[in-house]
Amino acid sequence: FFFAMAYNYDGTMSMAQQERANPLVQAVAYGCLMAAACFGTMAYNAATAPNQMYVAPTLAGQATNVPAAYFQGYSRPNTQVSATQAPVREIQRPLSMDTLSSRVDRPIWIPQGVKVTRTATGVVVEGPKGKMERDLPKEVSFLEENSILLVTYDPSVRNSKAFFGLYRALVANMVKGTSEGFEKNMEMIGVGYRARVDGKSLVLNVGKSHDVILPIPDGLTVTVEANTKIKVQGMNNEVIGQFCANVRKERPPEPYKGKGIRFAGEVVPLKQGKK
């Protein structure tokens, strides 16, 4: 009936009645169609929900058969794996770089002379360059065995995988910082631009009416070569990056001639000037 009225199969209606009825009938028919589709989707989801199994907790980003004790206090939720589901990969013990995946497990190699210690609230890393500490959230833990550090997380907790990626990178930087250290180089481009180290401060002359004095944070070593090349060294990558950002902020590279303070190797896109 709706489609007959919508497509004007009844010739007894006047032209004015047809103009008023056709859009209304079409809207009603479209609404009925959408409601049927929604109810069908809901029924399908309700019928297939029991077949959706929860993936087992993961170790270093993948499903594993590692006992709950390896998660350092985390309890595994009840899981059921069907016969058709892919088998859960088991981490071989003891840990070995030959059996771990660099893309999935993402293990951290601990160099000789570096010691990693688990504390009640976080982790402590000691090495030739010094000692660093960091608190870890409850969603993240780690395994340390055979000079291999494997960061783990509890997938039953919301956003735990994001914490895994973040703190895995932070712990890896701690290991590298205490063993090798980090280094960033900057350069100054501009007529009269100079820099020098005065005690525990970096003094910049970047075309302002006064010299810019930046205090050097503890743990960093700043040297200046040829008055325009700045080298920052230290074991804390975060402190180095923040200090370099503060230096660059005093005179960022301008887009026409590129004058200013930039990182070594940084490419500054230049705009075309007036002709």
What does this protein look like?
- This protein has 275 residues and is an alpha+beta fold.
- Helices cover 26% and strands 26% of the residues.
- The strands form 5 sheets. The chain has a 4-stranded antiparallel sheet with strand order 13-14-9-15, with helices on one face.
- A hairpin with a 2-residue loop joins β5 (122-127) and β6.
Keywords:
26% strand; 15 strands; 275 residues; single chain; 26% helix; alpha+beta
Strand and helix layout:
Layout: H1 2-6, H2 15-48, E1 58-59, E2 62-63, E3 108-109, E4 115-118, E5 122-127, E6 130-135, E7 140-145, E8 148-153, H3 160-179, E9 182-189, E10 194-198, E11 201-205, E12 212-215, E13 221-225, E14 229-234, H4 237-249, E15 260-263
Antiparallel strand pairs: 1-2, 3-8, 4-5, 5-6, 7-8, 9-14, 9-15, 10-11, 11-12, 13-14
